[in-house]
Structures are given as structure tokens and as C-alpha cells.
Amino acid sequence: MTVVEISQYGGPEVLKPATAPVPEPGPGQILIRVAYAGVNRPDALQRAGNYAPPADASPLPGLEASGHVAAIGEGVTRWAVGDAVTALLPGGGYAEYAVTDAAHALPVPEGMSMDRAAALCETAFTVWTNVFMRGGLQAGERFLVHGGSSGIGTMAIQLATLHGARVFATAGSAEKCEACLGLGAERALNYRDVDFVEAMKAEGGADLILDMVGGSYIPRNLDALANDGRLVQIAFLQGSTVELNMTQVMTRRLTITGSTLRPQSSVAKAAIARALEDKVWPHLVSGRIGPVMDSEFALTDASKAHARMEGSLHIGKVVLKVS
């Protein structure tokens, strides 16, 4: 099969087409003939040598894909060959075939195209885990999401709005801010012109902040929280090492938490998948929410897809057309 591999650690140019054997599904797994693969920040981190895959995962990048079941492993009862699925992958999505745990696959929402379906799992799993399971977002709360025009941000805005939260977002251009407003954000803050700390303080502070920037944003996020507020950290585009005065964490009863998805157990990911199918998938089917699509590249042009994503030019998701 055709794959895209990381020839060495470095920039987008190190992503090279290659050939590899088609993997075989083990017990409890399915083999997917990939139609489209999602492109995500963790793929770029892996390419740069900063995010090693689990020992039992494919070394190829790619954490989500859509396609059709090509084979099933021992013990798999839900899926049959030919079923249309979208799936969270442990790796290996930049390929014509990929293997994943059968419990980490979900049906393609009725009426949804395969390119849009490929843009679901990494974002939906991440947002549901961090905004609702860890962050505990409730209706009426003030929710601030940084990077509101990213794949994660666009899904977070939609789901938080759907659940009755007051949503605020930061983004880096007028166009991106308009996109956030169009998805349901009450206010979109251009971080080049507006201090999000002062903006949120004027609203009474954020009850929950979802941050993927890190670095200098971390102490500013604490300042922007309301009393009893929660900060959920999911990435560190500006770095993970900062100096903090923790006094206000105690005096204002703040919570700092976070998670990464890939290292979690198969059981934990399966539980998230079940929650998504119950709580989120009906809204995808109805069209109330959906992935925001930015651009599509051929599998063999994965380097161009990475360059677009890392150039922060995109609004929503970037995908690779595989077959």
C-alpha cells in the first residue's frame, strides 16, 4: 500500500511517500480502507520528533480517518466488511489501510461525506474529554477557547453553544474571528488587538478556559478565570515551562488540569466513543453541528498540508484524500 512516512525528524518536507505492507487486524481490531485522513497538530509534533507514538502503534502519522471496513479481527461483532466508519487511530492514518480498535470506530453520520467524516474523531474526542468530562462545562457558564478557528476550536464553540454556555474565542485575524462568531461564539477576540484577560474580567471572568497555546498564556489564563474557574490545558504551542505564583489558585479556588488523548488506555477511548455516539452523533446527523472544513490535499502532498496547518492559515480542518 502507499503510505506517507517520516523520513527523518524535521519540517514538513520530511514527509515522503513510500510503500509498506497492508497491516492485519488483531483480536478486537478492524482494518479500514482509508478514504480520507485528518491532519492534526500531534502529527506535526511527531514529525518534528516531539511526540513519539506508543510502542504498539504504527510509526506512520495520522490519528483519525474515514473509510470502509476491509477486514475484522477475532471477536469483533459490531462491524462487518463494507461498513462506513470514522475512527480514532493510534497512528497510521497516512496510508491506504489502517488498523484500529473496533471500539474506537463510529458510524459515519447519515448523510455526511467521507472528507467531513475524517475530520471528526480527533477533535470530537478531544473536546468532549476536556471541555465536558474534565472541564465540567455547564449551561450558562462563560467558556473561553483559545485558537477558536482551529479544528479543536471550531468543534468546541459548536458543542459549548449547543449545551447553553456563553462562548468566547480568541483568534488571530478578522476573518477567523468572523468564523468563530458564525459558529455561535458570543464574542471573538483578535489577540493581536485585544487583551483577552481584560475582556474576560469585564464579563466577570471565565468559568472554563480551554487552552492549546501554553507559555505566556498560562499565567494570563489564571488571571482571566472567575473564582472557582477551571483551566484545561491540551497543548503547548508556546512551550510548557512557565513560572507561576500559585497563591491565587488557593485563594480563588482555581483548578488547573489537562490531558492528552493518544496515551490513554483503549478502555478509556472506548468509553469516550460511546459517550460521543450517545451525546454528539445525533446532532451531527441532524446537521446542528458539523466539522468546519478548510482544505484538502492528496495523500502524497501531506507535506503541503502540514505547511498550511503550521502556517496558521487554516480555518477548521485540513484532510488528506487517500482513495
TrEMBL record:
Coiled coil: none annotated. InterPro entries: ADH-like_C, ADH-like_N, ER, GroES-like_sf, NAD(P)-bd_dom_sf, Quinone_OxRdtase_PIG3. Residues 10-320 form the Enoyl reductase (ER) domain. It comes from the Bacteria. Pfam families: ADH_N, ADH_zinc_N. GO terms for molecular function: NADPH binding; oxidoreductase activity, acting on NAD(P)H. SUPFAM superfamilies: GroES-like, NAD(P)-binding Rossmann-fold domains. Keywords: NADP, Oxidoreductase. NCBIfam families: quinone_pig3. This is NAD(P)H-quinone oxidoreductase. The lineage of its organism: Bacteria, Pseudomonadati, Pseudomonadota, Alphaproteobacteria, Rhodobacterales.
